[in-house]
Design goal:
388 residues, six-stranded parallel β-sheet, elongated
Length: 388
């Protein structure tokens, strides 16, 4: 299931943060929803529970703290708490929306630390401290003492700005909105794509189970089943053309949102090296982060792969288990992850042999693939050989 990410926006008081957030929410094009904070203060004026804040009693707020219900919280003034409920984040993100948090610097840094790459932190800052003071004074709503306190707080907050993912100076409001929007677009549209290469001769249910598991159970958003015209470490098979194998892959993936067919290697020089494919895809799709998916059998010989160290360093590798090739995930080097996908003792070699002997392969290949194989008479021995 696609889930949204968390966008943290922090700024000193008087930097136009609320104005910028309102402009972003009205922009359209990216599914964003504002997270409603919780507080133990009473509603003011026309404030509504669940709209302006989640208004909790002092007892309920402290109970929520004890029950680890907050992603972050802070006692802003003695006895006055504000916080971000985990349930609020989960509700918005599980619906596929990106969560927008308008929180102070300390809270923003705590959320970023907790969520890591699943969160984008943006700090809005004034051109200068003097400009900020002038803006606060022009409001005409605060005393000199209050302004001095806000400016002192702003100095502390600006010192924390380098810890944020991005910083935007609000010198011109329209320009600041455009800059923040561009940062969010780059973050939101970026996908993590796993390249699952193979000859797929033919594609079988084992391939699809692994691909589906990795796309649904890891931090990889999409798996691209990448058709290899020739594996430099394996003997080349006969029985199906590149066009046949490509058609079977497309049939297997159907209209899936997370499993895609990639045929770029068919047009690349042969023998085809994986590192060249990854470089090519990175250049063609700069909005995607590519990583390699391989079985534990290939991991055992990965040091024989062309530019193996570059692949690990520049792209990363996800290893899934293959029968007979155990891997201790605790010993994997940095840049290599382990996906504990279900193991299926099924191979394309077995299927080719079974088909050549007229043995049934139903349920061993995806729906539609068996029909294609029978229709095109793939992997069948020529008539003169079958009669010998």
């Amino acid at each position: 299931m696609t889930t949204g990410k968390v966008i943290i926006i922090s700024a000193p008081s008087g930097c136009g943060k609320s104005t910028i957030i309102n402009a972003l929410m009205n922009e359209g094009g990216i599914n964003m929803q504002f997270s409603v904070s919780a507080t133990n203060r009473a509603p003011r004026g026309s404030e509504q529970d669940g709209v302006d804040y989640h208004f909790l009693s002092d007892h309920d707020f402290r109970e929520a703290i004890a029950g680890d219900a907050f992603l972050e919280y802070e006692e802003v003034y003695p006895g006055r708490f504000y916080g971000t409920l985990k349930s609020e984040i989960d509700r918005i993100a599980s619906a596929g929306s990106n969560v927008v948090l308008d929180i102070d610097v300390n809270g923003g840094l705590r959320v970023k630390q907790a969520l890591g790459e699943e969160a984008l932190s943006i700090f809005i800052e004034p051109p200068t401290i003097e400009t900020l003071r002038q803006r606060l004074e022009s409001r005409g709503t605060d005393s000199i003492e209050s302004i001095d306190a806000r400016v002192d707080r702003a100095r502390y907050e600006i010192d924390q700005a380098p810890r944020y993912d991005a910083r935007v100076v609000n010198d011109d409001l329209n320009s600041a909105v455009e800059q923040v929007w561009a940062i969010i677009v780059q973050f939101e549209v970026r996908k993590r794509v796993g390249i699952f290469g193979g000859s797929f001769n033919p594609v079988h249910t084992g391939h699809m189970i692994v691909a589906s598991y990795i796309a649904g159970w890891t931090d990889i958003d999409e798996v691209w089943l990448t058709l290899s015209p020739e594996n430099p470490l394996k003997r080349r098979h006969d029985g199906a053309t590149d066009a046949d194998r490509l058609s079977m892959l497309r049939t297997a993936c159907g209209n899936s949102d997370t499993l895609k067919v990639c045929d770029v290697e068919l047009g690349m020089p042969r023998p085809s090296y994986t590192v060249n494919t990854l470089r090519f895809l990175r250049d063609r799709y700069p909005e995607c982060d590519f990583t390699l998916i391989i079985g534990s059998d290939n991991w055992k010989i990965f040091d024989r792969w062309h530019a193996a160290e570059e692949i690990i360093k520049e792209f990363g590798v996800t290893v899934y288990p293959r029968p007979g090739y155990p891997v201790d995930s605790r010993t994997l080097p940095e840049g290599v992850a382990y996906a504990d996908a279900p193991t299926v003792s099924l191979s394309s070699t077995f299927l080719r042999q079974a088909i050549s002997r007229d043995m049934p392969v139903r349920h061993m290949v995806p729906d539609g693939v068996e029909q294609y194989i029978l229709q095109e008479r793939l992997y069948k021995k020529p008539e003169h050989e079958a009669q010998q």
